[in-house]
Specification:
The complex is a heterodimer of chains A (about 350) and B (about 550).
Chain A (H helix, E strand, L loop, with lengths): L2 H4 L1 E3 L2 E4 L4 E3 L7 E3 L12 E6 L1 H11 L4 E6 L5 E4 L2 E7 L7 E7 L2 E5 L21 E6 L11 H14 L5 E4 L5 H11 L6 E3 L4 H9 L7 E3 L12 E4 L7 H4 L5 E5 L6 H6 L4 E3 L7 H11 L3 E7 L1 H10 L3 E4 L28
Parallel strand pairs in A: 3-4, 4-5, 5-6, 10-11, 11-18, 12-15, 12-16, 13-14, 13-15, 16-17, 18-19
Antiparallel strand pairs in A: 1-2, 2-3, 7-8, 8-9, 9-10
Chain B lengths: L1 H12 L3 H14 L4 H9 L10 H11 L2 H11 L2 H8 L12 H10 L5 H11 L2 H12 L8 H11 L4 H8 L7 H7 L21 E2 L4 H4 L5 E7 L2 E9 L5 E7 L10 H4 L6 E11 L2 E2 L2 H4 L10 H6 L2 E11 L2 E2 L5 H15 L4 E3 L8 H9 L13 E8 L13 E5 L3 E12 L8 E12 L2 E10 L5 H13 L1 E5 L2 E4 L8 E6 L1 E4 L7 E4 L2 E6 L10 H5 L5
Parallel strand pairs in B: 1-11, 7-9
Antiparallel strand pairs in B: 2-10, 3-4, 3-5, 5-6, 5-7, 7-8, 10-11, 12-13, 12-16, 12-17, 13-14, 15-16, 17-20, 18-19
The chains are: A alpha/beta (about 350), B alpha+beta (about 550).
Chain lengths: ~350, ~550
């Protein structure tokens, strides 16, 4: 079987003809396999969804129980056969429940990695490299300027600033799914014991992470009336809230933002961020390369992000590579552009 | 170097002026000589290195990285220093981190052959922030939102003196400014060498708003044309030994005299003029496009001086001889100015004439037709009117209630987005430079021809939408440039505002817009309804 018969890029997302399923479709389809719960990969309105238990739970929390007509849990490591194709979900290390999908048919193995990272994350299972013929990778940070420092050092920067300005509130923008909970867990690992205050938009997913056993310590919902009294405290909120009127009601706030984009100064300034924290749930340039080598794949397909640079690099080390130019992915701001659910209107033709 | 790098880094993220002042003042207070003096010189543009140039930095990174990956990264980051700082390969066990004075001395004194190795060894030793700061120093443009004036204001604050006091002694001093700091800290008297031709902060105007006329009395105001050139301050003074010092400053106090020797040699009377820098030839003021031939030149050729003679159209006098007259009302200063310009008797300096008017209606009529209201052949270089209260003193900054600008209404045209490129600086990594076109008839039917490029006018939210449109509608990629869908039935219409139009041989359309910006995004309008080239050609000066 030729690779182009097993998986093809379409405006709706990656399509697998012999199984008649889409992976992370950006439009409603009959049958979808979903790598993780971020809203650009996991959309409501499909006929049937196969995903990990955590991802299905996250989708239900975000879209309501009726987000799909039928759902099926993919047990980690177990093989699900659809048509003539075997599918297997393997941890991707991106957020809680995130998985790579191993697609195998007639001896040809393609790994769809979804979004992934290699750095340790106390809130989710770590990435497991799977040997394969073709590795499909993201390239959100696919430029050699993106080298993430250890997340623990970035969290120390935050705690150092809290010590330096004990009267100011530190407002940390972090994506509601994954990043916020990872930052909280890292703050705990650094020995910070005071309650962490959270914006209402983070409450549901934070509660879910706690139920799943993430070590987040004491979290408290910010009440509008008590903002004035939160000088010296750490407050987490979604990125869109750091520039809101909501954020200005805190005593002399220090604006921080936890994102891989904070590596580029202009990006921090565009958002009015004073304390950039380079913490990402995506692989950086070095980890993208290391991962590609580890899979042993001879051919690399790049789904989204800075595909041009990664494809070029593959060429310099003798790997066949091509960009898929998939449209509609951008991890709620961690990849560009920012997308709200159900907003994608792909118009680029597949190559 | 680490402390200096830390300061630049903090300043780059700090949006608030007062917080910037506090950061700089705190650094200057707590850092010893000569480090702080070199830091102050870096922030005031006082460090120029003969051999250390951006080209050298490009060569160093080219030896260490893949050229395609570098080009893609530079395109994304939009800043050479930052791109190189981020891409520089880590070298473990490198030399000790250099000190700022050591870096300055090395950059000043090393020859072209030894400099690359020296800079590379520093880059190996520094961390990312340190590399970025070092490269900023070498490339000469800090771009951290700190003007020379702001840095001097911070320095003045550590001695509790007015910023103008620092301006007055500034030009007599050299980095690392040890005399200055000794004076500011009360350890030594005021430095002797006072500058006979210092910069004085300029007075700025507010835009006139709807309803202002009802509150303003025409008899209390003088009106002038608003010239489409650049605002300058031309200062001339005499040293104690009798020699003359002449300087030409931009409105932010940068010394731009080196590009305008023809102006400097005309300043033969002690005094400080406020006026508009223009190019004047064949008895008429030329367009801003023509003036641009003279801007940002390191050296000027005799040919350029002859073809594009620079000229000052004066509208205020701040110093008359030895006397600072900024406290006097504008009416008085105007008389002094007229007298000064006639004594100067130079063809390179003339007066900006007042517009005669008795009522706001008369001024409105004059603004609508400058050519017949006194501007004559210079009308093309008029971009509106200035209104100045006759009793206004000359105050630094933008004081309320004295001066107003009343710009000519912008021209609007509906264009179609054709190409986009990523921006630099504040807009970096977004597709924010837009090339747009209008329809024209060709043998094959209607086609779009590019008429201009704009990179501002939209809000941050609109930028995100435009960026998304570009990514989703890319037809072709030409290096950093993306061609986007632009057909009669599909594409994006942009309402473009601009100030004026000139013929141009550099553009395919034969037209060049002055000050184009995106005034509205017409998501609602199909490209076939955008404007045609004929609509623009009607606006060309006869």
């Amino acid at each position: 079987m030729r690779p182009s018969e097993l998986l093809i890029p379409t405006p709706a997302g990656l399509y697998c003809p012999p199984a008649d399923i889409h992976i992370d479709p950006v439009r409603p389809v009959a049958r979808a396999l979903i790598t993780h719960g971020h809203s650009d990969h996991a959309r409501a309105g499909h006929g049937a969804v196969l995903a990990t238990r955590e991802t299905l739970a996250i989708m239900a929390l975000r879209y309501g129980e009726g987000f799909t007509s039928s759902q099926q849990v993919a047990e980690p490591g177990a093989v699900t056969r659809i048509g003539s194709v075997d599918f297997r979900f393997v941890p991707a290390g991106h957020v809680l429940g995130s998985a790579q999908i191993v697609v195998e048919c007639n001896g040809l193995r393609i790994v769809v990695s979804g979004d992934y990272k290699r750095e340790r994350d106390p809130t989710c299972a770590g990435f497991e490299p799977v040997p394969c013929d073709i590795f499909i990778t993201e390239a959100t940070f696919g430029l050699p300027v993106f080298r993430h420092p250890p997340a623990r050092e970035e969290v120390n920067k935050l705690l150092e600033s809290v010590r330096l300005f004990p009267e100011r509130t530190h407002i940390v923008g972090a994506y509601a799914l994954g990043k916020a909970q990872r930052v909280m867990a890292l703050i705990r690992e650094a020995g910070y014991e005071r309650p962490i205050h959270i914006h209402g938009a983070l409450a549901t997913l934070t509660e879910f992470y706690e139920e799943e056993g993430a070590p987040l310590g004491e979290t408290r919902l910010v009440a509008a009336s008590e903002r004035k009294a939160l000088g010296g405290e750490i407050v987490l909120c979604p990125p869109s809230a750091i520039q809101d009127l909501w954020a200005r009601k805190f005593p002399d706030p220090v604006t921080a933002f936890a994102s891989g984009w904070m590596r580029v100064r202009a990006r921090a300034r565009q958002r009015g961020v004073e304390l950039p924290l380079i913490i990402s749930d995506h692989a950086d340039w070095d980890d993208l390369q290391a991962t590609i080598h580890e899979t042993g794949a001879g051919e690399i397909w790049v789904t989204h992000g800075e595909a041009d640079a990664l494809v070029h690099w593959c060429g310099t080390v003798g790997l066949k590579a091509k960009p898929l130019h998939l449209v509609g992915y951008g991890d709620e701001g961690e990849a560009e552009p920012e997308l709200a659910p159900n907003e994608a209107t792909p118009s680029e033709a597949p190559p | 170097m680490n402390r200096f790098a830390w300061l630049l880094d903090r300043l780059a993220y700090e949006p608030r002026r007062n917080a910037k002042l506090a950061l700089i003042a705190d650094y200057l207070r707590s850092t010893p000589d000569p480090d702080r003096g070199y830091a102050l010189a870096a922030m005031t543009g006082g460090l120029v290195f003969q051999n250390a140039k951006p080209g050298l930095v490009r060569a160093l990174i080219a030896e260490r990285t893949d050229p395609v990956l570098f080009a893609l990264s530079y395109d994304y980051v939009g800043d050479l220093s930052e791109t190189v700082a981020l891409m520089w390969p880590a070298k473990h066990g490198a030399n000790a981190v250099p000190h700022l004075p050591e870096v300055v001395a090395g950059l000043r004194n090393s020859g072209k052959t030894e400099l690359p190795r020296l800079i590379a060894s520093w880059l190996d030793a520094l961390d990312e922030t340190g590399r970025w700061a070092l490269l900023k120093l070498i490339t000469g443009a800090l771009r951290i939102g700190v003007s020379a004036r702001l840095a001097k204001t911070a320095a003045a604050s550590i001695g509790g003196i007015a910023p103008d006091e620092v301006e007055h002694v500034w030009h007599g001093l050299e980095p690392p400014y040890t005399e200055l700091f000794a004076w500011l800290e009360g350890r030594a008297p005021r430095p002797q060498a006072t500058d006979p031709a210092p910069f004085r902060p300029v007075m700025l105007s507010h835009a006139l708003e709807d309803g202002d006329f009802a509150k303003l009395d025409p008899a209390a105001f003088q009106a002038e044309w608003k010239w489409d050139g650049i605002r300058v301050q031309a200062v001339s003074g005499t040293r104690p030994d009798g020699t003359r010092v002449t300087r030409l400053y931009s409105r932010t106090g940068e010394d731009i005299g080196a590009s305008f020797p023809d102006i400097l040699e005309a300043l033969l009377l002690d005094g400080a003029l406020d006026g508009e820098l223009l190019v004047r030839r064949e008895e008429a003021v030329q367009s801003f496009n023509t003036l641009q031939q003279r801007l940002n030149r390191k050296s000027v050729t005799p040919k350029m001086l002859a073809e594009y003679p620079a000229h000052i159209r004066a509208y205020d006098l701040l110093v008359d001889g030895e006397e600072d007259i900024r406290e006097l009302p504008l009416g008085e200063r105007r008389k002094r100015l007229e007298n000064f310009v006639s004594r100067l008797a130079s063809p390179a300096v003339d007066l900006s004439p007042p517009i005669p008017f008795g009522s706001w209606e008369e001024l409105t009529a004059a603004r609508a037709d400058p050519a017949s209201a006194g501007a004559g052949a210079d009308a093309e270089a008029v971009e509106g009117c200035m209104l100045k209260r006759l009793d206004s003193p000359y105050l630094p900054g933008r004081p309320k209630g004295y001066w107003y600008k009343w710009k000519r209404d912008a021209r609007l045209v509906d264009c179609v987005l054709m190409y986009a490129q990523r921006g630099h600086g504040k807009r970096s990594s977004f597709y924010s430079d837009f090339t747009f076109g209008v329809w024209r008839t060709s043998p094959e039917g209607d086609e779009l021809v590019p008429v201009g490029k704009a990179y501002f006018g939209f809000t941050d939210e609109e930028l995100v939408e435009l960026d998304r449109f570009v990514r989703r509608n890319t037809l072709n990629r030409f290096g950093p440039v993306r061609e986007v869908t632009h057909e009669a039935g599909s594409g994006l219409v942009l309402e473009v505002a601009f100030e004026g139009l000139q013929r141009s041989t550099r553009h395919k359309s034969g037209l060049a817009m002055r000050f184009p910006r995106i005034s509205r995004i017409r998501w609602d309008k199909p490209p076939r309804e955008a404007d045609r080239i004929e609509a623009l050609e009607q606006l060309l000066p006869a």
